[in-house]
Predict the 3D structure of the following.
Amino acid sequence: MTWRILGLAALVAATAHAETVEGRPVFVLEGASVRLVADLAGGSIGEFRFRDSELNPLRWNPPAAGDLGIRGFGHFLCLDRWGPPSDAEGARGMPYHGEAAHVRWQPVVPPHAEGASSVAEMSASLPIAGLSVRRQIRVSATSPVARVREEITNDRPLGRIYNIVQHPTIAPPFLDAATQVDCNGHRGFAQGNPMPRPAEPSFEWPAALNRDGASVDMRRLTDQAEPNVVSYAIEGPWGWVTAATAGRGLLVGYAWKTAEYPWVSLWRDVKNGQPSARGLEFGSTGLHQPYPTLVQVGRLWERPVFEFLDAGETRSKSYWMFLVKIPPDFRGVDNMAFSGPRLVLRERPGGAPREYAVDVPAELQP
């Protein structure tokens, strides 16, 4: 059996505009089926949902009414690092996860309809890091899919190491104890292991080990968030991660090229005995440490834990985000792949075989 989640016929044209939400400047991009909202006060993608539903998986840590501060929420960008600065860097103003979510982003190309999609571009300058980033967001006019491309430039006259990690975070009401996370991570480790072997002990997806050495199934989060952050190395040319809440009929997912983002990391948080947040993070590193530690480690399992950007160099990276409506008996994602003009998800075994396909228009193709 195949479930075809086709883009709706273009019942409405692609639309895109700049506006304010509770006083915060945002870009709004819409197609016939989905709505995406990107915040300029920190660059977060705070909303990605079907237009016929108010259920927004990325509703994590949203600004309160009247909060006009520059901050990260929903899906924010970690750049020029993932995790803490060194003590010396922190004393000189470098924030946790870098500056990208702590600066104001500027409009470059205002939101507009273009062909079969809504398009906008925004940029940010990171003064301490000496980097700048330019982001293009393209939302399909007909399908529940968006492509985000980011260009990172070293504006300084000397080369430097850096990291970039995407930090989408799901939260209630989409997130509950039945929400199932799937990915194609392979070998993994829990953050916080001591040096000089930070990736030991290791385990294989979907397992992880808590501090007591007990096995934990990372697909679900109930009332225990230990281990807190687990990172897995991606196998194959494409990386992907999905979160599905069958009781609410919704799946949100991300896909990217492994050559650009070789690690997927899962952050878990519980408050008052209930799931509060799950980070579906993917990026250039799987080690949540300041640069002195990353330089000491060098590589893990033949994979980098940082990148080098030469003076004046620009590097481009892309990812795809998508939504799928799922049935109440959905079993989770076993595999995902681009197949021609479609993104195809294969359901885990356990019943009649089902596939779910999202059309990817030519201008959003890899």
Helices lie at 87-91, 291-297. Residues 79 and 168 are 14 Å apart (CA to CA). Residues 1-12 have pLDDT under 50 and may be disordered.
